[in-house]
Write a structure and sequence with these properties.
Length: 482
């Protein structure tokens, strides 16, 4: 083998995974990161840049620092916030989710990660467009693709390949040695998202439109159908502003309002309507060059039901890790990246890099993070079906402090207020909403328990998956009737 470990994709998740494998092996493993970009643009997701909302919780970054001693500072941390505020469509309710967070510079971060990795003996190959995996019988033994510099076929071998090539991963899409890992995603589980990074002059003071200390989320089915819109501060007069939509909900919204909007037009209207942001202009600062505006996709479902096969393991957006409720993918990528190194070192040291030898990664990720994602997927599906009136009414009346705390911790709320509710609920739609919320809370409980019983060996996976999908199908069906 050329290397012990090859990491396909030098983005956020891939870099952390490599650093973690290096840390847990005391730099004994030989590790190669392969990316299609050149070094100065490593981590770039698309031609449009390092497209992201740039927000991450301090808790996730601390998790990485505490376990694998990798820390992030300035300049990759551009701004600090105290939490997130979600605003209802009628703007009457604003719910504060306290918890320190960082606004990152996603273009700078991979450079910092690159320098750190180099110092720790990690190797890099740039300008390689990976297309496929190499196999020996049923074992993945490397990667292949095209070297854009030498214009030749590229092949490298390793005991383990980590796929961190993002949501469109050609490696996961084409995987041939497993029937447990899902290759494709349902199109309804993808959000089209985009954002601008902008400087602006201060307009009207309205903390519901811009707050330099909080990330603002606007829930509104006219502005961001099937998703949400955001105003995330990057300073006193700098902002990451954008929104995400789900295609079928955008079509319904356009039909309802007799409009022909698309993602780009919705984003531009969203910027324009904000009275606190005057004279907005795309950032021309060198740290945002080639990254000031762009769109990309993000998944909003549970992680892949199985994230390993013989010699192969997936992470980050390639494994559909972003949180179904808010598409936050940096936190789970940090968590998975931090833990994956230990799983890989154990597999390599015990000379078992088969599906069985790597299996523990599935369970470890579920224990740290993945146990809650299927429940949140169901909750997200319900939220997408709600009208603006239902969202405003629900946010005002049905969220107790324990629900807000649960959402702050990335968990499904249990809506305990709904159990005690004795006021007269106005309107049929709100009664349906209550039933929907009670239903998702119930399904969430089952799903969380089920994930806490994730199989410890591959053989038990099929039965576990059968039960999971039965519950998911039943949930999708019930939600479609609300
Ligand atoms: C508009 C938008 C806003 C978002 N906002 C937030 C937010 O505020 N907070 C948050 O937590 N998450 C957010 N996310 C999600 C977050 O950006 C992703 O979860 C995160 O970037 C995932 O990192 P990754 O390393 O898995 O994948 P990526 O960042 O996509 O990195 C993939 C890497 O693989 C390389 N690569 C891809 N294909 C190949 C190939 N064939 N060969 C070689 N190399 C390849 C790419 O060049 C890149 O370097 C947002 C996403 C979008 C689109």
């Amino acid at each position: 083998m050329d290397y012990d470990v090859i990491v396909a994709g030098g983005g956020l998740a891939g870099m952390i995974a490599a650093q973690s494998a290096s840390y847990y092996s005391n730099q004994r493993l030989s590790i190669l990161i392969v990316d299609r970009n050149q070094q100065l643009s490593v981590g770039k997701k698309t031609i449009n840049g390092w497209v992201c909302g740039d927000a991450v919780s301090k808790e996730a970054v601390d998790f990485m620092e505490g376990r694998i001693k990798v820390s992030w500072n300035k300049p990759e941390i551009e701004h600090r916030v105290k939490g997130v505020i979600a605003l209802s469509p009628d703007k009457e309710t604003s719910i504060k989710f306290d918890g320190a967070g960082y606004m990152l510079n996603r273009k700078q971060l991979p450079q910092t990660q690159y320098e750190y990795s180099k110092k720790h003996g990690i190797n890099f190959n740039f300008g390689i467009n990976l297309t496929d995996l190499l196999y020996e019988d049923q074992q993945v033994i490397g990667v292949c693709g095209y070297d854009t510099k030498s214009r030749s076929i590229y092949k490298k071998t390793a005991n383990v390949v980590i796929d961190a090539t993002g949501v469109t991963s050609p490696l996961r899409n084409g995987i041939k040695n497993t029937d447990k890992m899902e290759k494709k995603i349902n199109k309804n589980d993808i959000e089209s998202t985009g954002r601008h990074i902008m400087y602006f002059d201060k307009g009207e003071k309205d903390l519901r439109e811009f707050d330099s200390e909080y990330c603002l989320i606007h829930l509104d089915q006219d502005i961001a159908p099937g998703g949400y819109a955001w105003v995330f501060p990057k300073g006193e007069n700098k902002v990451n502003i954008g929104l995400g939509v789900e295609k079928s909900f955008l079509e319904m919204r356009n039909k309802r309002l007799h409009k022909h909007d698309n993602l780009a037009s919705l984003i531009n209207q969203y910027v324009k309507r904000n009275k606190s942001i005057k004279n907005p202009r795309l950032s021309e600062s060198p740290s945002d060059r080639s990254n000031a505006t762009g769109t990309w996709q993000v998944s909003v479902r549970r992680q892949n039901d199985c994230m390993v096969s013989n010699g192969f393991i997936i992470i980050g957006d390639s494994a559909w890790m972003p949180k179904p409720l808010d598409a936050g993918g940096i936190g789970p990528a940090i968590i998975a990246g931090t833990i994956i190194g230990k799983n890989i070192v154990e597999a390599i040291e015990s000379r078992d890099t088969t599906e069985k030898g790597l299996w523990r990664y599935n369970a470890d990720f579920i224990k740290e993070y993945g146990y809650k994602t299927a429940g949140l997927e169901i909750f997200r599906r319900l939220l997408q079906t709600l009208t603006n009136e239902q969202i405003s009414y629900g946010m005002k009346n049905f969220l107790g402090s324990s629900d807000i705390e649960a959402i702050s911790n990335g968990k499904h709320p249990d809506f305990s207020v709904l159990q005690k509710i004795n006021v007269i609920i106005k309107g049929v739609l709100n009664k349906r909403l209550i039933n929907g919320l009670r239903f998702t809370a119930k399904q969430n409980k089952w799903l969380t328990d089920h994930y806490n019983n994730y199989p410890t060996v591959p053989d038990e996976f099929y039965e576990w998956k059968k039960q999971l999908h039965k519950k998911l199908d039943e949930s999708y069906m019930t939600i479609s009737k609300y």
